Fold these 4 entries.
Entry 1:
Amino acid sequence: MAGTKDNAIVAVIGDLTNEQAAQMTKEIMKAKRKYAPNGRGTIACGKKSDVGGLLQSGKTKQLERK
């Protein structure tokens, strides 16, 4: 069926400073509000060594409906 909203995005981007990670988080949140205002999402920032844990644990910020 054309136009069904059944896609998701998962991205891991490394080699960023704290400021760069914060800016990218901010931009992703703005894009999410624009393109999927009723969608749910999760975003997390942390050390490269903790990527697996960040993907599975509660150290995340929820991007929920308002």
Entry 2:
Amino acid sequence: MPSSLLLFLNFCRRLCALAVVLCFSFSSSWAQEQRVIGEIISVNYDFSIASTDLNYYNLKPGDIVEVFDQGRSITRLEVLEATTSVSTLHPLSSQEKALGKAEFKNIKVGNAVVKTTLRPPQAVSSPVPLAPTIAPVPNLPSIVEDVAKQLEGLTLVNQTLNAQINNLDKDKKILQDEKARALAALEEANKTIMELKSANQSLQQSSQQFANQTSLEQQKAQQLMDENKNLHSKMTFLKTRLDYVTDLVNEALRYEK
């Protein structure tokens, strides 16, 4: 084989080896940049749903994360939903039947969450270095818009709460006025009750005095009746004696003639 061909083949082999080394180095560097670590913040064992503090800057629906407990791998979960604050995880679809709820029961709050699946970088035609895929700058306008919407919503909620507080203050004032009127009416009713009690007591005393006076009058009437009866008896006795004396006098006069 000509020496020039051998040199060309040797150059090609070295070029391929260099390309492999560069690809491996790039992949390792990209993987390190994409390695994301968070923790479990809530677990719903009934529905096999867990939440992590990693947000949509770190995770996307469909990503796979691995859960660790003190450095020991427990299971892998799939990202179901990612928001600005948390991400929702659930068992892998292919492992749901095999896992059931056994391994999921081992997950607890505070377990480490590590992103395992990597999203390959898009191919570029220029030799410009690839930027990390996790970059909040491209999403900054949407974040500002979300914050503005949330602020607007909170403003509306605050206005609604202030209106409700004002209505509650008005209702409280009405209730206080009604309470004051009710207390005044209750005080007037108590005063009337006391006056009625006093009048009733006076009436009872008068009735008792009248009853005592009536009893005394009855006693006097009975005494007069008894005296009249005695007087009538005496008059009857005296009339009898007078008739007897009269008869004696008439009899004596008749003998004298």
Entry 3:
Amino acid sequence: MNKHALIDSLPVTLAAFMFGNSKMFRESIESPSYEELLKTTTLKYPDIKGEGFYEVQANTLIGQLDPAFYIAQWKGYSYPTLIYHHGNNERPFHNYGFGKNTFKRIFLSVKKDIPANLIVVRAPYHCCFRTYLREIGKLSTLTSLMIASVKVVETLVDFISVKGSRIVLSGISLGGWVTNLHRTFFNSADFYIPLLAGTVPSDVFTSSIYRELTADLAHENRSAVEETLDFKEQFAKRSEDNISPLLASYDQVMRLKEQKESYGKHPVAVIEKGHFTGSLASAELRKHILPHLLGRW
């Protein structure tokens, strides 16, 4: 097995053992549609007063959720703005130690050299893994947290765009789904850069190595999971050339063939990495993002 694929596979196998009876979607695979969640999810938004951390109250069909965002660098409306969404089980506000934080590695480590506004959105349930593991027993938790993030992003886009800043939305893995969902249902940012993700999330939970973390209930009802999670057809209705996806050739989680096909005719960049090693390839990810953010394309 290729080393990148092996690095993807071993941690998932270990995690499956640790999860035990706490596998994803073990309680329920029922969920409202993305469209219904978009209509019913409302936000109580804070007053934005420059750089800093902001909590958002999201009222959803499954209860009150806790998305948030962090304005890490604000240079002004005359500069472009990057809105970034983290991957699954990251802690995007923890800027110390060795915690999983792709925003820190890709952007904060060199932020003084990036002439742009930098914002990261934190999905609900991403303050505490124990809470996340408890709640992810229901498929509706995943759909609701993604749509909560999508609506936080849209509020930020609406707030910033009226002042003239060019907005680029990017995200990795889970954040790539949020990026693609935002383009599908709003398409209000100027450019989209989904990383290590496509538009068929069900493949991750039913066919990829990640299926080991998913309960039998999902495997036994694969078509229902596909109907709920996948948005390939809705995504395809957007014909604008305003997206530049990036995938990894040895990715065992977001499998290249399936996710690349989900983008239709849109060109897809591919790096010679796996899912885990791809998320650590900060320089390569930054090299893909910055030309689109800074207008050199």
Entry 4:
Amino acid sequence: MNIEFIESKLKEIYTELEKEVMEVLMDESLDKKQTNLRMKPLSSTKQILQNALESIKMVDRISKEDRESK
């Protein structure tokens, strides 16, 4: 599994998410409640992706360990 490739693609996604976050934060027409409502899916998405990456790394590490022990 090419972890570096996956990480690079996720970094691209993080960059896009950060752009969206900045757009929401800079939108002066939104009140605090609206801003928070728009931010929640963005922050949740980032956390889900980070968790997925950690899971992929763990699976890769366990797979390598299994191959080395045989």
